[in-house]
Every structure is written in structure tokens, then in C-alpha cells.
From TrEMBL:
<dbReference type="InterPro" id="IPR016446">
    <property type="entry name" value="Flavin_OxRdtase_Frp"/>
</dbReference>
<dbReference type="GO" id="GO:0016491">
    <property type="term" value="F:oxidoreductase activity"/>
</dbReference>
<comment type="similarity">
    <text>Belongs to the flavin oxidoreductase frp family.</text>
</comment>
<feature type="domain" description="Nitroreductase">
    <location>
        <begin position="9"/>
        <end position="163"/>
    </location>
</feature>
<dbReference type="Pfam" id="PF00881">
    <property type="entry name" value="Nitroreductase"/>
</dbReference>
<dbReference type="InterPro" id="IPR029479">
    <property type="entry name" value="Nitroreductase"/>
</dbReference>
<keyword id="KW-0521">NADP</keyword>
<protein>
    <submittedName>
        <fullName>Nitroreductase</fullName>
    </submittedName>
</protein>
<keyword id="KW-0285">Flavoprotein</keyword>
<keyword id="KW-0288">FMN</keyword>
<keyword id="KW-0560">Oxidoreductase</keyword>
<dbReference type="InterPro" id="IPR000415">
    <property type="entry name" value="Nitroreductase-like"/>
</dbReference>
Amino acid sequence: MNDVIKLLTSHRSVRKFEARELPEGLLETLIKAGQAAATSSHIQAYSVIRVKNPSSLEKLVELTGGQPYVASCSEFLVFCADMKRPLEAAARTGEDVVSGMTEQLLVATVDVSLMAQNVVIAAESEGLGICYIGGIRNNPQAVSELLELPKHVYPVFGMCIGYPAHEPDIKPRLPVDAVLKVDSYRDDETQVAAFDSTMHAYYQSRKGGNKDANWSQNLTPLFNQKLRPHMRDFLIEKGFTMK
């Protein structure tokens, strides 16, 4: 493996950070690297909110479900799908524009996700650690009000960035042949069963605890209830009417 692939395969989520600021200009460099990611039709349908106000950070700790590292990391960013900028740019040409299409929601969500992952890779190449914060979507309306997000912009996830104060174990992934399929979709339950055994062994041996669970059991809370049912109405209110 070359150095880039080694970096990618050594990713882990960091939740404890040193009390250090990033060097001057590094964050802007990371964002620029993010902007170099692929973007559908060059729309660049994303905006990133850098949250610096201590009271806002503490409020975000609460809104994301009590995750203290939101406030203790060097930088906390909120990555937003932003269809406002391209819609308004197109309208300024004098053309009638159509908003609220499901494809616009998908494009903006994919764009910001690709951009954010570039930021992650750039950050980790500089010795930084990161943690995605999907809990931003626990209370998206309150987050939007706090960050003054306009219509056609919604918060997709947050990201903690900073210097790691611990070294978490690398969490195993499904085997390649479970996700890489040739010519058509084929499923093999034995692959999941084997991965359940792998994850159980990982949880039993990892630093900081001996969790008695496997991959399938960890998925249960995501599928035995309606997860974040507020998101559909929230997105419609934000202008993503999914026509």
C-alpha cells in the first residue's frame, strides 16, 4: 500500500483532543482541499459553518445529544447542504428556476459529503483527528436557528477536528467481497455472520471496554424504531420539498 492508502485505511474516530489550536491558515487549507472534491455539474452545493462562539458550542453539545468533544475540539464545523447559492445564481441569469426537486436534495447532500471527506483526509494527513457528528440532525431546526441557516440550506453533520489525545483502535470493516459485487447484486448471509464474529472479538478486546455485542446487534436501534422522523417535515420546511 502507498502512503495515501495507508492513511485512508488507518482512519478512526477521535473523541478526545489536546487543548491546542490549529496553526494559522491550516483550517483554510483543509477547506480548500475539501473544495477540490468532485461536485455534481460544478454546483458546489455546500457551505461550512465554523463555530467559534463558546456559548454556541455548549448549545451544540446539548443539541447533539451531550457530546462534550463538540466543545473541546480545536475546531467544530457544521457541514451544510446549500442549494440557496446555486439557485440564486441561476435565477440571476434571468431564467425561471425550479426549486424543491428531490434531485436537488440528493445533489447537495452528496456534494457536501464528498467535500467533507476530502477535509477529513487532508486533516488526517496533517496528524489531526476527526469525528463526524451526525447528532446535528437530532434537532435540525434548533441548529438552523442557532447558525441562522436560510431556506434551501440544511445541516447534514458536524465535524470535530483537533490533535488526538488518545489513539482509538481501528474498527474493522466488512470484507471487500461483501460490498464489491460483479455484474449484479448478490448477497451472502455467511459473510455477515463471519463479520459479526469479527466485531464481537473486536469489542471484547479493544481498549477501554469489553462490549458484548456484534455488528448486527449494534444495528438494531437504527431499525427497530423510526429514526429521526422529524427530518422529512424539516427538509420540506427548508424548501427541499422533494418534488
